[in-house]
Amino acid sequence: MEINEKERNSRTKKMMLWFGMISMAMTFAGLTSAYVVSSSREDWLEGFQLPTVFSLSTAIILLSSLTFYFAKRTLKQGKLNQFKSMLWFTLLLTLAFVYFQFQGFGEIIASGYYFTGAESSITTSFLYVLVLLHLAHVAAGLLVLTVVLINAYRNQYSSDKTLGVELAELFWHFLDFLWLYLFVFVTIYQ
């Protein structure tokens, strides 16, 4: 069976994305392993809990995965206006996620827990690194989503031309899964 150039290009791009996502997952696996090891330190905060606003942001980012899925689905059905609308919903949900992440940080600081400096603890410093590193990846996801939106308005996609959207959606779901992992990990492992 001979693979055509379009299929070869698609497979290559998907494989490169998978390599990138695996390396990102390994970074977070290392950080969460360090979190576990560091939890045995004397200065580890016992009973520290994330503010409930992080639960809200988690629900929002999971909803954004759903809207991105529907965006791709409507594209494949040739419903271009619905495709664009779902991309806009995804963008708005993502901005809400980022907003509530910063609200959560504000609540942690207002409770007297600092992330850096003499008043910080190893627990909050780890949390700071984990969440900010994830937010850096979300910023990359926002850039990807913006490119997809621009390309949607330039009519770069159609029901049979979906590779860019497929790659963006895969990365998006990865980011959402990564956040869910971090949220559950920090919530359960205290």
List the helices and strands and how they pair.
Blueprint: H1 5-38, H2 53-76, H3 80-110, H4 122-153, H5 163-188
Write structural notes for this entry.
With 190 residues, this protein is mainly α. The chain has a single domain, classed as Cytochrome c oxidase, subunit III, four-helix bundle (Four Helix Bundle (Hemerythrin (Met), subunit A), Up-down Bundle), CATH 1.20.120. It is 77% helix and 0% strand. It has helices at 5-38, 53-76, 80-110, 122-153, 163-188. The longest helix is centred in the first third of the chain and has 34 residues, at 5-38. It is elongated.
Summary of the model, kept short:
With 190 residues, the protein is mainly α. 77% of the residues lie in helices and 0% in strands. Helix 1 runs antiparallel to helix 4 and helix 2 packs antiparallel against helix 3.
Number of domains: 1
Shape: elongated
Please tally the helical runs, counting DSSP H or I stretches of 4 or more residues: 5
Biggest sheet: strands, sense, closure? Answer: none
**CA-to-CA gap between the ends?**
53 Å
**CATH fold type:** Four Helix Bundle (Hemerythrin (Met), subunit A)
Number of strands: 0
Strand content: under 5%
Any low-confidence stretches, pLDDT <50, length ≥5? none
CATH superfamily: Cytochrome c oxidase, subunit III, four-helix bundle
Class computed from helices, strands and strand pairing: mainly alpha
Mean pLDDT over the full residue set: 91
- What level of helicity do the residues show? over 70%
CATH class: Mainly Alpha
User: Cα-atom Rg, whole angstroms?
Assistant: 19 Å
Second rung of CATH, namely the architecture: Up-down Bundle
Secondary-structure element order, N to C:
HHHHH
